[in-house]
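Fig. S4 source data, part A: sequence.
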Amino acid sequence: MSGILDKERIIAGPGFNRWLVPPAALAIHLCIGMAYGFSVFWLPLSKALGIKEAIKCGPDVGFWGQLFTTTCDWQISTLGWMYTLFFVLLGSSAATWGGWLERAGPRKAGVVSAVCWCGGMLISAIGIHTHQFWLMILGSGVIGGIGLGLGYISPVSTLIKWFPDRRGMATGMAIMGFGGGAMIGSPLAADLMKYFATPTDVGVMQTFVVMALVYFVFMMAGAFGYRVPETGWKPAGWTPPPAQVNNTMITQKHVHVKKVWGIPQFWLIWMVLCMNVSAGIGVIGMASPMLQEVFGGGLIGVQAKFGELDKDQLKAIATVAAGFTALLSLFNIGGRFFWASLSDKMGRKMTYVVFFVLGGLMYFSVPGSAAAGSIVLFVGAFCVILSMYGGGFATVPAYLADLFGTQMVGAIHGRLLTAWATAGVLGPVVVNYMREYQLGMGIPREQVYNQTMYILVGMLVVGLICNLLVKPLDNKWFMTDAELAEEKKLAHERAVAAEVGTSTGGADTIPTWVVGFAWLAVGLPLAWGVYRTLQSVAKFFA
């Protein structure tokens, strides 16, 4: 089995079609992307014992007590810690094992990711069955979080090497899949829970088992679909542009991952990603209540503030707000591919300038559009903001490859994801605590987000300054020829047999139906997810 997973076994021959690699990456990212949608389980899990009504724990049962209790239901706030663990473990595991991934290859990393993510879901299913929350924390939170990190970065280096002419587009395709995972997984989970639910069971345990098995098949297919190009391979007819002529931000040299902690440019990009994500992720978590509190009855044609609505009216505007959240998810996913592809033309640095300047203007406009009662301008601003939030994730791997070279870009990207883990705490804390502070000061609900928007503008200004300070690396940071040769040896790389540039690696000698089937296998679930999301969006426009 280990021989099948060795990197030497996945070096592509001269007739391999590089367009088979993106669907392999999508197969993994669409599965692990369900981490975004785990909140669909919180409400039914909070009634796992009581079924119709939660059996509340006594005041003496705190967080640690809920880890082991079998007599009362878990609180939603307790369940939410698993979501936090996902992204803390994603960043830390990607940073820890990124170097190993570069040497072991994407197939082995993909298989480990599948075992961790799906195995973690099965352990969580046991935890649900025995009502032991510590098993859910261990399964999906810790083991699944490690699978998240390895699965997230597994295709980055490979795609960048297969698409040196379209780095942004290539990584945008894969990371678009991570954003789309919840779009497929959430409605699938809801349907499965409805199917398995009985008068004595909420159906979550069975749903975890089914989804773990389905995801395992898809992730293993993706892992075994990975191939890496021979060293020196390039697309037929493509010539690398000279860095000093085309773009001084794109290097032809390579940095070792062990050096990046000491490189100023790495920390500048770390701040760029952290500020962009902090601003966006804080809004994602509060999008639904924000729309409801700001516009109140205006969402359903009633001239009344949020606090003046009755129960039926509150239910009606909650439905509208759910459609708004679904609309944002579409822009989040589409922005990943759109902005990353556009960065191939504009350059990564300029793309981030657009993110921060345009994003800052959008945040700054929100209080004004809210005060004017313009739902269209309010929603439009957040759609643009969320597209750039997703675009930031998808563009940064190519940004790193431009600055630090492609040899260890996956490992470097893994270390950069600690910025995501930081933002996952910083963004929601700023938005949530500022909201509570404003409410405590007696400020009306429709105005409590105004100061928050200005704070988020400040974050984007910090990100803009850091981005403008990014400049090409000094030669002292790059590996020498001897160091590069040693790293390639450790990574089990093989140079092209023919002279570099004469390889026919881009030729489509693999049957067309194979390429079509691979894209169909990931395209159909994605299309179904878009369809289900559009059904929710329709409620907003209705």
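Fig. S4 source data, part B ends here. Residues 311-346 form the longest helix (36 residues).
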